[in-house]
Design goal:
Porin
């Protein structure tokens, strides 16, 4: 029910912006690296991904799509090795705060899908009595919250650094840095 309410609020917010001057289309592509902090017992790891800049809904409101991936292997116990990964596909709006300097702060949020996969392998002396390996995956609706700042690195290259919190079945926090090549 909470997810439906969030989607409804987002649709209402976007419908109010539909009459505003917008410039939507493929405006830029890029990539990012991340240091990701998943929920316990999964320890921090490195992630990577891509971004697509889809234009402006208003002078301060930018539309992006993010695709991110991270994976972490860890020992769950003496005889069980586990692996967990997430592929996150998010649509996000970034509100660019008014700024007179080269660094442009922003805050934003979005919705998307988190495709999580887990696998495990048992290597103990009782492996003949248990499934010695297994895996499962599930897809969940994710809610993205972010703050960051961007700056122009050249006439067609924008750099950014941001902090994101992804709320889903497995929540994770990440520190991201990347670039977006602006198409003209």
């Amino acid at each position: 029910m909470r997810k439906v309410a969030v989607v409804m609020l987002l649709v209402l917010a976007l419908s109010g912006l539909a009459s505003a001057k917008s410039d939507i289309g493929l405006k830029g592509v890029g990539g990012q690296l991340a240091y990701v902090f998943p929920e316990d017992p999964i320890e921090s790891t490195i992630g990577f991904g891509g971004n697509v800049y889809l234009g402006k809904l208003s002078p301060q409101l930018k539309l992006f799509t993010y695709v991110d991936y991270w994976k972490k292997s860890y020992d769950e116990s003496k005889h069980v090795e586990s692996s967990f990964s997430v592929l996150s596909i998010m649509g996000a709006l970034r509100y660019q705060f008014p700024s007179t300097g080269n660094i442009k702060p922003y805050a934003g949020g979005g919705l998307g899908l988190n495709i999580a996969s887990a696998s495990w392998e048992y290597s103990g002396e009782y492996s003949e009595y248990f499934d010695d390996e297994g895996s499962e995956s599930e897809t969940d609706l994710g809610i993205l919250i972010m703050v960051g700042a961007s700056t122009m690195l050249s006439s067609n290259m924008e750099g950014f650094a941001e902090v994101r919190y992804n709320i889903a079945d497995v929540d994770f926090f990440g520190i991201y840095a990347g670039i977006t090549y602006l198409l003209k």
